[in-house]
Every structure is written in structure tokens, then in C-alpha cells.
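task queued by scheduler; priority normal; single chain, no ligands, no partner chains; default sampling; output format set to C-alpha cells
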Amino acid sequence: MDDVEYPPYEGDERTQLRAWLDFNREACIRKVRGVTEEQARSRQGPSKTSLIGVLNHLAHVEHWWFHLCFTGSEPAIETYDDDLEYDVGEDLTTDDVIAKYRAQIDRSTMIEGAAASLEQRAAHDRVQPTLRWIMVHMIEETARHAGHLDITRELVDGAVGR
């Protein structure tokens, strides 16, 4: 896998949060690239975890926290059933799911960038964390799934790396 650069050592809090979230997002995408469609869909254990399934789930997580929770907007992704998020229909290729995830990242970044501050609270009617909380949670969630993708990718074809 390609060598990657870590986020910069300098920068204000928001810059650092965004950089670490982007670093983890890209790590997840790198783990899914370079395998066959069959490998991307293969489950390496009893759960529904597959390379393409985890990335699809991450697109939904981005959508939930930034679009639905933070802005209080109506759903724009087709489902929120955790089991279904990991099931990717045969009509979607790995490239389709990567594009879906990247498009959601772009929307999330736009929403985050438009927020007045990290102290701004979510507009959801029941869940109202600050943007800071959402960003930290998304770093944690994305990094955790990057670890799942690391292990899954190693089981699929032996590839390891950042």
C-alpha cells in the first residue's frame, strides 16, 4: 500500500480534527482499493464484515452524524438498518461504494466547514452534541473501522500497511 503522510504537527484544533478525520477516511479507502469485486465482498468471519460492507457502513455513519444529526435534515440515504448497511447489492461495485463514501465525505466536510464553531450544537430533535463531539467521535469511529479493514484486507489477500 502507498506511503502516506500524517496530518501536520501544527494547526488550530479544528484544523487538527479535520486533518485526522481525513487521514482515517483515506486509510479506509486505501484498504478497499486493489482487490477484486469478489474479494471486496468476501466475509472473513461469521459477521457481515466485508471490505465493501464496512465502507458502505461508513458512508451511512457520515450521513447520520453530519447530515441528519448536525443539520437536522431529512434522510437522503436509502436505509439506516445496521444489518443492511453492511449488505451491498450486486448492482453496486467497489468503485460505486468508494464514490458514495467520497460524496458523503464531501457533504460532511461542507457541513462542518459551514458551522460557526466547534461549540455549535446539532440541530437534531433528540441528539444535540457539539460539532467538536461529532468530529472526535467520527475520528474514533473511522479509525476503529480502519482497523477492521486492516484485518479484513490482510485475510483477503495478505496486504498490510497504513
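post-processing summary
- The chain is about 60% helix and 0% strand.
- The chain has one domain: 13-157.
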